[in-house]
């Protein structure tokens, strides 16, 4: 490609409103332009990178046995009513009506459409298993589109759906996708972790993993072991029960006046005690029933763990009116002592280790001292109900928990029968019995992956593309297009390198050398070849963008030199 014809407008100044490197560099290097908030056009360089990412995805998906299809982005609302997600999905679901006032949605995902597609086709165990995938534009009406294509309202996604006759077959499909995803992100040059995760709005009660690219700009926190390969999303990172019951204190429970002391920080300061001696009490409404959850004052209760532990449909904190009606006091002063006649009490494992705890007295402006879990409370169940903290023991018994930020680029789910039962996708087994298809769901954010690559591969001068996804292999520069020897050598090398199979961006523009060098660093192709003052002697300068190493090479030896670089 001759750069004088390339539609890739670069920017010298930092774009306003671009807060992270990937957004800044995609704008500055001419990969994208914003059309509306959270909606972008991909220019030639950006589209070429997307093509390479998609090519890697297709190769690994096809190798796994998956088959590519293409489904419509516009989906009938009736399908979402069948699955029960039309109202549950939330305001992110984009809705529209056609000229006949029939309701449709713009697909953020395709579980409903794919299930309706196969329910009349995959009707026998002889046709299973099947894994179908597509690469397509998705739509979500994000409340706050930001970070460029990392959180946008229109994005490119690869989604796949497996249909299996039994749990063993589903496990094999899931493992094949897990391996394919690992290969895809490795080939894209990413440093990532596959972490245990929550299924969220997609649903399903089986296994699920998120593929997280390590990055300080990530919106997710990963909890990982510093001594093993354990990793999980912070929301569901496990905690082992390592606490033993403490000795009962000699002191009896004592009531103490604590005026306007409602928070853990206020209680610790007022009573001059550490947070880990306090007992935090939070009333949750679990499937419309009140349940009191307690944990140590230095810990935070986790509603996702609570939801999963109790296999609940809905979990929410109680409001002030609900708290007053049950406990006769205001929030901040409720506690587990004497609560057994009002609600069930669930305690986090760490509460067992408290010897002389402090909790609310179920009376305004009053706390209780010297509280012991066994002596003074009626606890219905202990469990893992809190968020992990750095330094907690890893659940596999190896090392301690550390935190890192991550960008989610992929997610694999075992959906089970959630959608097949709702939409009537059944098959006949070997005995002629009708059974619901077992489903798996596997997604990759293609445009997100592009941004994640940039977050991990850039410097102060611009992009540094891994070879596998770079828009071009080589950047060939002629420093002075008015010099005949430089142009002759440049034209000759452009033809030879293309014949050798390289994808070449040829900077033949009538620009100053400084401009060309700056643009080359900004665009960040793996190797730069410069035809300069020694072009008359057949010598060019070859520079690796990643290492900055430069070497003068004679044109006759260039092919061998490039082979060694790209190998």
From TrEMBL:
CDD domains: ProRS-INS, ProRS_anticodon_short, ProRS_core_prok. It is an enzyme of class 6 (ligase). It holds the Pfam family HGTP_anticodon. It catalyses: tRNA(Pro) + L-proline + ATP = L-prolyl-tRNA(Pro) + AMP + diphosphate. Keywords: Aminoacyl-tRNA synthetase, ATP-binding, Cytoplasm, Ligase, Nucleotide-binding, Protein biosynthesis. It is found in: Cytoplasm. It comes from the Bacteria. One of its GO terms (molecular function) is proline-tRNA ligase activity. Its EC number is 6.1.1.15. InterPro entries: aa-tRNA-synt_IIb (IPR002314), aa-tRNA-synth_II (IPR006195), aa-tRNA-synth_II/BPL/LPL (IPR045864), Anticodon-bd (IPR004154), Anticodon-bd_dom_sf (IPR036621), Pro-tRNA-ligase_IIa (IPR002316), Pro-tRNA-synth_IIa_bac-type (IPR004500), Pro-tRNA-Synthase_IIa_type1 (IPR023717). Coiled coil: none annotated. Residues 33-466 form the Aminoacyl-transfer RNA synthetases class-II family profile domain. The keyword ATP-binding applies. Consists of three domains: the N-terminal catalytic domain, the editing domain and the C-terminal anticodon-binding domain. Homodimer. Catalyzes the attachment of proline to tRNA(Pro) in a two-step reaction: proline is first activated by ATP to form Pro-AMP and then transferred to the acceptor end of tRNA(Pro). As ProRS can inadvertently accommodate and process non-cognate amino acids such as alanine and cysteine, to avoid such errors it has two additional distinct editing activities against alanine. One activity is designated as 'pretransfer' editing and involves the tRNA(Pro)-independent hydrolysis of activated Ala-AMP. NCBIfam families: PRK09194.1, proS_fam_II. Belongs to the class-II aminoacyl-tRNA synthetase family. ProS type 1 subfamily. This is Proline--tRNA ligase. The gene is proS.
């Amino acid at each position: 490609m001759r750069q004088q014809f390339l539609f890739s407008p670069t920017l010298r100044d930092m774009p306003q409103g671009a807060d992270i490197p990937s957004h800044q560099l995609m704008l500055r290097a001419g990969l994208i332009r914003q059309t509306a908030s959270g909606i972008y056009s991909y220019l030639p360089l950006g589209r070429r990178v997307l093509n390479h990412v998609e090519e890697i995805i297709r190769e690994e998906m096809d190798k796994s046995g998956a088959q590519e299809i293409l489904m419509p982005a516009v989906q009938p609302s009736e399908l979402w009513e069948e699955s029960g997600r039309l109202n549950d999905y939330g305001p992110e679901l984009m809705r529209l009506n056609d000229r006949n006032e029939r309701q449709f949605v713009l697909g953020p995902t395709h579980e409903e459409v794919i299930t309706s597609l196969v329910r009349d086709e995959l009707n026998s165990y002889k046709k299973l298993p099947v894994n179908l995938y597509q690469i397509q534009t998705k739509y979500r009406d994000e409340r706050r589109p930001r970070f460029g294509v990392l959180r946008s309202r229109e994005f490119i996604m690869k989604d796949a759906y497996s249909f299996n006759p039994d749990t063993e077959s589903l496990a094999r499909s899931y493992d094949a996708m897990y391996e394919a995803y690992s290969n895809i992100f490795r080939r894209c040059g990413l440093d990532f972790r596959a972490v245990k995760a929550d299924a969220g709005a997609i649903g399903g009660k089986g296994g699920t993993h998120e593929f997280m690219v390590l990055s300080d700009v990530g919106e997710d926190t990963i909890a990982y072991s510093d001594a093993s390969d354990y990793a999980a999303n912070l929301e569901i990172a496990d905690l082992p029960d390592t606490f033993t019951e403490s000795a009962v204190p000699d002191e009896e429970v004592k009531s103490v006046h604590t005026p306007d002391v409602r928070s853990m920080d206020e209680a610790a300061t007022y009573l001059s005690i550490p947070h880990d001696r306090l007992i935090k009490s939070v009333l949750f409404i679990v499937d419309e029933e009140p349940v009191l959850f307690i944990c140590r004052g230095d810990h935070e209760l986790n509603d996702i763990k609570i939801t999963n532990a109790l296999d609940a449909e809905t979990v929410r904190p109680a409001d002030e009116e609900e708290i007053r009606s049950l406990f006769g006091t205001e929030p901040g002063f409720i506690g587990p002592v004497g609560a057994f006649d009002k609600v069930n009490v669930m305690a986090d494992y760490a509460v067992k280790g408290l010897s002389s705890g402090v909790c609310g007295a179920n009376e305004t402006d009053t706390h209780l001292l010297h509280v012991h879990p066994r002596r003074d409370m009626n606890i219905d169940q202990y469990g893992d109900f809190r968020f992990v903290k750095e330094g907690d023991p890893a659940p596999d018994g190896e090392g301690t928990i550390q935190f890192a930020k991550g960008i989610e680029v992929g997610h694999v789910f075992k959906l089970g029968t959630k959608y097949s039962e709702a939409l009537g996708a059944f098959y006949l087994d070997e005995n002629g019995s009708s059974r619901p298809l077992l489903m798996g769901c596997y997604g990759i954010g293609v445009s997100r992956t592009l941004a994640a690559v940039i977050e991990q591969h850039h410097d102060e001068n611009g992009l540094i593309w891994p070879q596998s996804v770079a828009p071009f292999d080589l950047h060939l520069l002629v420093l002075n297009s008015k010099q005949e020897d430089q142009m002759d050598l440049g034209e000759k090398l452009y033809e030879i390198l293309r014949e050798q199979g390289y994808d070449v961006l040829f900077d033949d523009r009538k620009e100053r050398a400084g401009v060309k060098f700056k643009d080359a660093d900004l665009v960040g192709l793996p190797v730069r070849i410069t035809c300069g003052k020694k072009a008359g002697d057949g010598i060019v300068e070859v520079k690796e963008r990643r290492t900055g190493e430069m070497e003068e090479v004679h044109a006759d030896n260039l092919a061998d030199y490039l082979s060694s670089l790209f190998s």
